[in-house]
Design a protein that fits this description.
284 residues; alpha/beta; disordered C terminus
Length: 284
């Protein structure tokens, strides 16, 4: 199993929605971790399994004290809360000021997330919602432990240019310099486009050409549908057949493709049965 980090360069491309959607349809047990240093969103948009609100003090905030004494991967579960649909989440910080309490601990967290696969009791993949990143964002310190870093981007020209430049910068930081398509480094840097499904094929080719020309070593690994109604259902703001939404159907395609390409490298049997499916997202 693996750590998969999701991030964006600028703006609001929908990193949290993408992270929840992918986690909701992940084929094995998964822990969704809100690791955005600017603060998390799930405590405001999602209900806990007991029907009430999530506890903002149990999650990244509470794990800080534990991590300073050393962090065994299984200890992560002591700070996890289930959403109403069953998805297990590590709730993010309340605000950016609280990130000071995690100073110096991001590599420790990254190792614990990556090593959760080897837990003898409750192994799981970890999907980390890292929010918006820049050169000095501390969450980037976890990326060297990740199997996959996914940059989420919309498809306006300026967004594509930013994701190209961010991929190049990450490649330089993580791999030591520019890389061609035949020299993909570890962690793999992938791009997920948020787009109209009818335009996805053409856009994927265009963006891949840009990524290759810039020697980023990155490539588009999938597209997630621009689906406001599905996003509202996932967040519990609207009722409907979430499993039939374009959002969830496209997220399922992305996870299927990822596992087809990389699943063999992550193949560690998971204990505890499968995680929730689409309705295990963010409440009803």
């Amino acid at each position: 199993m693996a750590l998969i980090a999701l991030a964006a360069d600028k703006g609001s491309p929908g990193v949290t929605t993408a992270a929840v959607a992918l986690a909701a349809v992940w084929p094995r047990r998964v822990l969704l971790a809100e690791t955005d240093p600017a603060g998390g969103d799930l405590v405001y948009r999602s209900a806990a399994a007991h029907g009430g609100p999530l506890n903002p003090n149990t999650g990244m905030l509470s794990i800080a004290a534990t991590a300073r004494r050393g962090l065994v991967p299984d200890q992560l579960w002591d700070h996890v809360q289930p959403l109403s649909g069953g998805l297990e989440v590590l709730v993010g910080l309340g605000n950016a000021e609280q990130a000071a309490g995690l100073a110096g601990l991001w590599p420790t967290l990254g190792r614990a997330f990556a090593q959760l696969a080897d837990s003898p009791h409750a192994p799981a993949d970890v999907i980390a919602d890292c929010g918006r990143i820049s050169g000095d964002t501390p969450a980037v310190e976890m990326f060297s432990q990740a199997a996959l870093v996914l940059l989420i981007s919309r498809t306006e020209p300026e967004a594509i240019a930013r994701v190209r430049d961010r991929a190049a910068a990450l490649s330089a930081k993580l791999h030591g310099g520019a890389r061609g398509a035949a020299a993909l480094g570890t962690p793999l840097i992938g791009v997920v486009l948020i787009t109209d499904p009818g335009e996805s094929g053409k856009l994927v080719h265009q963006v891949n050409d840009m990524l290759v020309a810039a020697q980023t070593g990155a490539r588009v690994v999938g597209t997630i549908a621009e689906d406001p109604a599905g996003a509202d259902q996932l967040a519990g703001r609207k009722r409907g057949r979430l499993d039939k939404s374009l959002l969830i159907r496209s997220a399922r395609k992305v996870t299927s493709d990822l596992y087809q390409q990389f699943g063999a490298a992550w193949a560690v049997p998971a204990a505890g049965g499968p995680n929730g499916r689409p309705t295990a997202g963010a409440g009803r």
